Amino acid sequence: MSGEIRDLIRRMSRENTRCGAPRIHGELLQLGFSISQATVSKYLLRHPSPPSQSWRTFLTNHADCLASIDFFVVPTASFRLLFGFIVLHHRRRRIVHFGVTAHPTADWVAQQIREAFPWDTAPRYLIRDRDGAYGQSFRSTVMAMGLEEVVTAPRSPWQNPYVERLIGSVRRECLDHVIILNERHLRRILGSYLDYYHGSRTHLSLGKDTPDGRPAQSAGSGTVVSLPKVGGLHHRYERLAA
After folding, report:
1. Coil, strand or helix at 63
2. Which of 10, 22, 163, 198 has its C-alpha lying 20 to 30 A from 149's C-alpha?
3. What is residue 48's predicted lDDT score, i.e. its pLDDT?
4. What pLDDT shows up at residue 49?
5. What is the CATH number of domain 57-206?
6. Which carries the bigger pLDDT value, residue 34 or residue 109?
7. Which candidate, 125, 115, 173, places its Cα nearest to that of 148?
8. CA–CA separation, 54 vs 47, rounded Å?
């Protein structure tokens, strides 16, 4: 038995926890390896608990019907704290709604959800953490809209990774470089960044496309020019028509 086949069996077993020796043996036959099923069973990894899909797999398989929400805190020039609120749809990483407030009450959050998903456009699942702002009026609104809440475990931001990563991008690429004056200023800055985020910023998870879709231009079709975005923090590059 070559080391290549042993490593391949273990790799297949690790990547496909729900597959047993017969399935992996079939895969190996399709790859041209002449080996018995008993030998495959010998080198399978032994999983200590019943196999189940990973959280990442769940999020990927349900991207079309998943949305995430979360708050982030923004200090102002006068040391006042403002709260940003983001609603992210997983399918195309689109930010379907954002809000800014100094007092995030349950009624205010419920109104943001209604504005984010009007006219029966709500997905099936809504992932959120255990923030106290998600009170009874919020839960009643979500239930009436047909949304099923998926509440993360305490102190487990990794269970809501897409919106957490988005908030990190908003901070690193925008808010860390701006002094916020008030609610109106923060709303304008976020609106400018989200316009760049949806139409110009490429995403690895989207095959280096943008959430709104950005058609590639042919090489040599014109001179490359830069278009300032977010007040010059970022730039978009386009070819001028010849």
Report:
1. helix
2. 198
3. 62
4. 57
5. 3.30.420.10
6. 109
7. 125
8. 14
Amino acid letter, residue 227: L
- Residue 163 parent element (H or E): helix 161-173
How many other C-beta atoms lie within 10 A of the C-beta of residue 38?
9
Tokens of residue 169, six digits: 């991008």
Round to whole Å and give the CA distance between 193 and 195. 5
Backbone region of residue 241 per phi and psi (left: phi > 0; alpha: psi in -120 to 50; beta: other values): beta
CB 86 within 8 Å of CB 166:
yes
Share the mean pLDDT of the chain: 89
Is the distance from CB of 90 to CB of 124 less than 8 angstroms? Answer: no
Report the C-alpha gap between 217 and 210 in whole angstroms: 14
pLDDT (tens digit, 9 = 90+) per residue, 49-108?
555 667 677 777 777 899 999 999 999 999 999 999 999 999 888 999 999 999 999 999
**CB-CB contact of 128 with 116 (8 Å):** no
Q: Which of 38, 47, 45 is nearest to 1 (CA)?
A: 38
Query: Is the distance from CB of 210 to CB of 203 less than 8 angstroms?
Result: yes
For 98-114, what is the HEC assignment?
EEEECCCCHHHHHHHHH
Strand, helix or coil for residue 115: helix
Which residues face 234 on adjacent strands? Answer: 229
**Alpha-carbon distance 198 to 190, whole Å?**
12
> Where along the chain do its domains lie?
3-52, 57-206
Distance CA 113, CA 126 (A): 10
pLDDT tens digits, residue range 149-184?
A: 999 999 899 999 999 999 999 999 999 999 999 999
Residues counted in the chain: 242
